[in-house]
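stage 2 :: seqdesign
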């Protein structure tokens, strides 16, 4: 997938949109999930889970709207969510959806360590058929994001093969899935919400060239292609540009070293909560890893001999040239695709491109350098390296 400012052009067949209510659709837009349609393994994390319902959803204006939940309250100490769910929700196999299924989903998702990190959750417990209580280990307001993304699965029938044969309470149900070829879904007759606007929907998992060829042959109603191919409109189609957002993040292994499915996973350093919290304090806020309040640096890169807030000694650090090396590594990897995208989209004059990217390079490097230095010092402190002592000192809860 090309990550550009306007990275996709959706070619829609106007004829298909003019059919009677509830037309069947054939789409060639990619997006086949590698792990199947299991919310516990990440399905639906970046959009509607299709087969499953979530507690909350966002409307067209991105405002919060109820889905399964009819009421949700957070306690004054911010440790307990009490959620009431609707009483008319049923899974596509006809069984009723209750608070027990919601509790099972959240507890299983925490243990699965899939697309959602729910480790801050202590437990989820059904109080009755419609009431759920979720207890957190510590206040964590962004935990509520799981209410929008975690699709609810049935406690009684969930199993290892669920991702290939999903049963949910969402607007659609699975008809068939031929991996690597196509997915066919149909409206879920048991869905409690507004009836689906389309009948059977077929998703073709084709490459970009094959998808465009299918559109030219009249075999599909909608196809996604790179922006540079949007001018090649098949007869009966029109192009719709969709602005996308390039989100990038830094993900660290949170599991200790172990073997899973014949592969080594995890990391001995980043699985240590003390290291992660210290990095959060040093990288995100350039704060003391011991107390999370005092600043590590004074000026631009000068390290305080001791924390001005708690007095923790910081002069033991040996960051040396490490921050500079890591800054160069990160800036290079970030700007290489940016340079390619700018050239593919706009083809600027060489001097314009060189000048603008040089300014961006310098600005990004200057912004990253003190943060990376703070993070390296925090890691050294958390691992008691280079003279940092006091193993009994608490770690900042950042």
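stage 2 :: out
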């Amino acid at each position: 997938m090309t990550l550009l400012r306007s990275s996709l052009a959706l070619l829609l067949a106007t004829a298909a949109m003019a059919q009677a209510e509830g037309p069947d659709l054939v789409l060639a837009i990619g997006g086949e999930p590698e792990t199947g349609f299991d919310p516990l393994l990440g399905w639906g994390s970046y959009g509607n889970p299709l087969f499953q319902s979530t507690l909350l959803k966002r409307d067209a204006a991105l405002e919060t709207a109820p889905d399964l939940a009819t009421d949700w309250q957070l306690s004054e100490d911010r440790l307990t969510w009490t959620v009431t769910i609707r009483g008319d929700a049923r899974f596509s196999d006809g069984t009723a959806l209750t608070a027990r299924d919601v509790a099972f989903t959240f507890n299983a998702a925490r243990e699965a360590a899939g697309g959602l990190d729910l480790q801050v959750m202590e437990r989820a417990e059904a109080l009755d058929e419609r009431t759920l209580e979720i207890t957190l280990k510590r206040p964590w307001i962004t935990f509520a994001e799981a209410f929008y993304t975690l699709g609810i699965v049935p406690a009684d029938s969930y199993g290892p093969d669920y991702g290939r044969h999903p049963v949910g309470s969402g607007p659609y149900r699975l008809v068939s899935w031929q991996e690597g070829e196509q997915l066919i879904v149909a409206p879920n007759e048991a869905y409690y919400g507004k009836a689906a606007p389309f009948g059977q929907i077929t998703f073709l998992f084709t490459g970009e060239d094959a998808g465009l060829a299918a559109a030219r042959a009249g075999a599909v109603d909608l196809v996604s292609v790179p922006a540079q191919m949007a001018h090649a409109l098949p007869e009966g189609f029109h192009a719709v540009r969709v602005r996308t957002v390039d989100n990038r993040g830094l993900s660290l292994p949170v599991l200790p070293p172990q073997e899973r499915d014949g592969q080594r996973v995890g990391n001995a350093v980043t699985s240590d909560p003390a290291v992660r919290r210290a990095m959060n304090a040093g990288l995100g806020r350039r704060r003391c890893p011991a107390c999370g309040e005092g600043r590590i640096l004074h000026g631009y890169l000068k390290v305080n001999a001791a924390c001005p807030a708690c007095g923790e000694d910081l002069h033991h650090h040996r960051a040396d040239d490490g921050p500079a090396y890591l800054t160069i590594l990160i800036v290079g990897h970030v700007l290489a695709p940016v340079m390619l995208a700018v050239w593919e989209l706009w083809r600027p004059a060489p001097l314009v491109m060189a000048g603008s990217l040089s300014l961006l390079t310098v600005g990004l490097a200057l912004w990253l350098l003190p943060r990376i230095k703070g993070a390296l010092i925090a890691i050294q402190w958390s691992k008691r390296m280079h003279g940092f002592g006091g193993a009994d000192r608490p770690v900042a809860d950042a």
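stage 3 :: structure notes
- The domain at 39-164 is CATH 3.40.190.10 (D-Maltodextrin-Binding Protein; domain 2).
- Residues 350-382 form the longest helix (33 residues).
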